[in-house]
């Protein structure tokens, strides 16, 4: 996937995953990478920015499998932002699909 396209939806991906459950950084990378390929180097600056914007909070939780981990949780502002981004995404998605038609990905162009 084009880097710019991916960059544009990563906030939505992170907020959507965190709307389901609190996660630590590497866990977020694993969950998002199941759908689109990302690296740890991509996620941590994004988490730092979302924390600074007040969309996330963090807390430390002891782990049975090593050192304590920093978990991330949506704030009420993060929940609102996630809902807005989801609405915007589906409007965009539906519009693009109208332009592409009902064919498959190998048709045209």
UniProtKB/TrEMBL annotation:
InterPro entries: Metal_resp_DNA-bind_regulator, Tscrpt_reg_PadR_N, WH-like_DNA-bd_sf, WH_DNA-bd_sf. Gene3D superfamilies: Winged helix-like DNA-binding domain superfamily/Winged helix DNA-binding domain. Residues 14-82 form the Transcription regulator PadR N-terminal domain. SUPFAM superfamilies: Winged helix' DNA-binding domain. This is PadR family transcriptional regulator.
């Amino acid at each position: 996937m084009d880097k710019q396209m991916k960059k544009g939806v990563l906030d939505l991906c992170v907020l959507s995953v965190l709307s389901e459950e609190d996660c630590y950084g590497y866990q977020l990378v694993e969950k998002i990478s199941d759908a689109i390929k990302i690296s740890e180097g991509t996620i941590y600056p994004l988490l730092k920015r979302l924390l600074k914007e007040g969309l996330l909070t963090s807390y430390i939780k002891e782990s049975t499998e090593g050192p304590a981990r920093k978990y991330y949780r949506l704030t009420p502002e993060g929940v609102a932002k996630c809902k807005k981004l989801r609405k915007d995404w589906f409007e965009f998605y539906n519009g693009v699909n109208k332009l592409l038609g009902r064919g498959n990905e190998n048709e045209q162009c």
